[in-house]
Amino acid sequence: MEQHDKAGTRGGGRVLAILLLAYIFNFIDRQIIGVLAVPIRAEFELDDKTLSYLGVVFALFYSTIAIPIAWLADRKSRVGIIAGSVAIWSLFTAACGMVQNYGQLVVARMGVAFGEAGGIAPSYSLIADYFPKSRRARALALFSLGIPLGSALGIFFGGWLASHLSWRSAFVIVGLAGLPAALLIKLLIRDPERGALDSADGRSSEPAPPLATVIAALARIPSFWLLSFGAASGSILGYGLIFWLPSFFNRSFDLPLSAVGWFYGSIVLVGGVAGTWLGGWIGDRIGPANPGRYALIPAVCFLIAAPAFALGLFAPNMIVAWLLFTLGQMLALAWLGPVISAVQHIVPANMRSTTSASFLFINNLIGIAVGNYFLGWMSDRLKAQHGADSLQYSILYGLAFYVLSALIYFVASRTLSRDWFRG
Question: Which of 166, 360, 420, 421 is the most buried (most CB within 10 A)?
């Protein structure tokens, strides 16, 4: 145990840095579509609802393919699967810049989804085998910094490249830039023994059970479903905002595309990094003594995030808007470290990839598909009443999903201690 623990911990920093780099490119490639939606919508003459189908198709394809890939990762090389996934999503992102019509763009985004489906759940499992339980929430929070960092960079560079070159060039450049990360993963990361840092004798866990066994086990764990649907409800707004706020700032605040990139990108960067790291740090500080606190942290944060975003939508000036949106962004991403860590701890090590993929299936299927579509659909519905401000009110009404998420997490905080795996 001691030797493996030392080796795993010693190599953990390098592994985490490389996986974080890949995750940053994951979210650059995934979220660049938000800022590029403005010129794409104009070129292909789309309404908001039709534009939102990009997110729906992405979510359906991503969520469906992620579970079988994760099931394979519980049996085969996680490193090989992650490296291949990074290469695939990078190439398909570049392909998005070569499309000639909206239908081709939808197909290219399906390819991005296929690649991204194989990267995240195996990474969660890999990180859990490099860091002991006492440090996992922080390690997973550090890995999750890829979300705000990648989203912010996608907004920064997407807006700049689209303004100075074209939206097509933006896709090609950021897509090809991700390929070196795949090579680093393949060459510099080894696949450690599964569960060796969890067992008393340092031996790895039993071989992964059949998929049906994992699903049957999860069906009997109430906390899994509460954590999944709590995350999904919050992600409806999380993914919806990252897709639609650039358009909101362009329409309601009259910001040009280049200014949107810097304004919203800085909100995502500052608020997202602070919230993601803070949530993981607090989780490691107060969670081990009472596992229910891993769910209590996002419950409280979402209850405060909703009014912060609501006030930001009607801020009197850009400075006040930036402060309120940054506070909201910080609180809205504080769930990542504690909740993802909790998901790793409610099942044995040989089920972690499949369990993480099942969690992500629910989170992304509902979060991306419903979030992108709901805000676009609601915006079109409110045009008669609110005109050019319809997207503003669509986002306002959608904040109810943060309140719903908080309520679900409050319930989860009462079940986690009972469902915690202590094998």
Answer: 360
C-alpha torsion angle, residues 353, 356, 362, 367 (rounded to 10) = -120
Structure tokens at 327: 């506070």
Amino acid, res. 410 = F
Sign of CA dihedral 262, 263, 264, 266: positive
User: For 137-146, b where at least 16 C-beta lie within 10 A, e where not — what string?
Assistant: bbbbbbbbbb
List pLDDT tens digits, range 301-353. 999 999 999 999 999 998 999 999 999 999 999 998 899 889 988 888 778 77
The model's pTM: 0.75
Q: What is the pLDDT of residues 346-390, one digit of tens each?
A: 888 778 778 888 898 888 888 877 877 888 888 888 988 888 888
Token pair recorded at residue 162? 């689209």
Task: Tell me if 242 sits within 8 A of 333, measured CB to CB.
Answer: no
> Are 325 and 271 a contacting pair, CB within 8 Å?
yes
Cα(354)–Cα(350) distance, integer angstroms = 9
Radius of gyration of the chain (CA): 20
Q: Kindly give, in sequence order, each residue whose CB lies less than 8 Å from that of residue 10, ignoring residues fewer than 6 positions away.
A: none
Contact criterion met (CB below 8 Å) for 346 and 223: yes
Half-sphere CA count of 99, side-chain side, radius 13 A: 22
Rounded to whole angstroms, the Cα distance separating 222 from 226 reads: 6
Q: Going from the N-terminus, what domains does the chain have, and what CATH number goes with each?
A: 2-419 (1.20.1250.20)
